[in-house]
Amino acid sequence: MATKIRLQRHGRKNYAFYPIVIADSRAPRDGRFIERIGSYNPNTNPATITLNFERALYWVTVGAEPTDTVRSILSNEGVLLMNHLLGGVKKGAFDQAEAERRFAAWKAKKDAKVNAQKTAMADKRELNAKQRLEAETARNKAKAELVAKKKAEAAAAQAAAEAEAAPAAEETEATAAE
Q1: The pLDDT value given to residue 6
Q2: pLDDT at site 163
Q3: Are the C-beta atoms of residues 81 and 19 closer than 8 Å to each other?
Q4: CA pair distance 167, 172, nearest whole angstrom
Q5: CATH level 3 topology of 3-93
Q6: Domain extents for the chain?
Q7: N or C: which end of the chain has fewer CB within 10 A?
Q8: Phi-psi region of 8 (alpha: psi -120 to 50; beta: other; left: phi over 0)
Q9: What is the rounded distance in angstroms from the CA atom of residue 55 to the CA atom of residue 115?
Q10: Distance from C-alpha of 65 to C-alpha of 3, rounded to nearest angstrom
């Protein structure tokens, strides 16, 4: 029986998530499967991947063929590297402890790189928010100055009208008193 490691599509339109399953190659995409070994959610940033490492490694070692996307996921999670290292152990190139050490070093390096990217993304979001706040503050200040200028002009125009109306009122009172 030819087995594949592939994605099943779940979720709604334009918002899919994918369980990672082991299935017979003849089965439909969303149909019958042998085992579910994880999930992949591309809707988050960065994409969320949960994977049962031991079961994925088992299925790769017994010959299950991953699809292209799943191959990329397994590679990023280190399953394919561990399979490669176990092949070296079987051939006698190095022992199991050396394989574990190499895998741990790779995993630590990868985790550091991912954490650095997450930190950079968080810093970028924070900087972007700060810049938007500064721009909004500048716009509000400019708008406040414009409103103050218009109020000052209106007050000056009203004062001028009152000053003009006062002598005219005095003349009318003076004429009425004569």
Answers
A1: 95
A2: 82
A3: no
A4: 9
A5: S16 Ribosomal Protein; Chain: A; (3.30.1320)
A6: 3-93
A7: C
A8: beta
A9: 26
A10: 6
Q: Report pLDDT digits (tens) over 66-81.
A: 999 999 999 999 999 9
Give the chain as a 3 state SS string: CCEEEEECCEEECCEEEEEEEEEECCCCCCCCCCEEEEEEECCCCCCEEEECHHHHHHHHHCCCEECHHHHHHHHHHCHHHHHHHHHHHHHCCCCHHHHHHHHHHHHHHHHHHHHHHHHHHHHHHHHHHHHHHHHHHHHHHHHHHHHHHHHHHHHHHHHHHHHHHHHHHHHHHHHHHC
The encoded tokens of residue 43 equal: 């809707």
Q: What is the pTM of this model?
A: 0.71
Higher pLDDT, 166 or 40: 40
**Cα gap 69→59, rounded to integer Å:** 16
**If pLDDT is split at 50, 70 and 90, which confidence band does 46 have?**
confident
Q: From CA 136, how far away is CA 142, in angstroms rounded?
A: 10
**pLDDT tens, position by position, 102-150:** 999 999 999 999 899 999 999 999 999 999 999 999 999 999 999 999 9
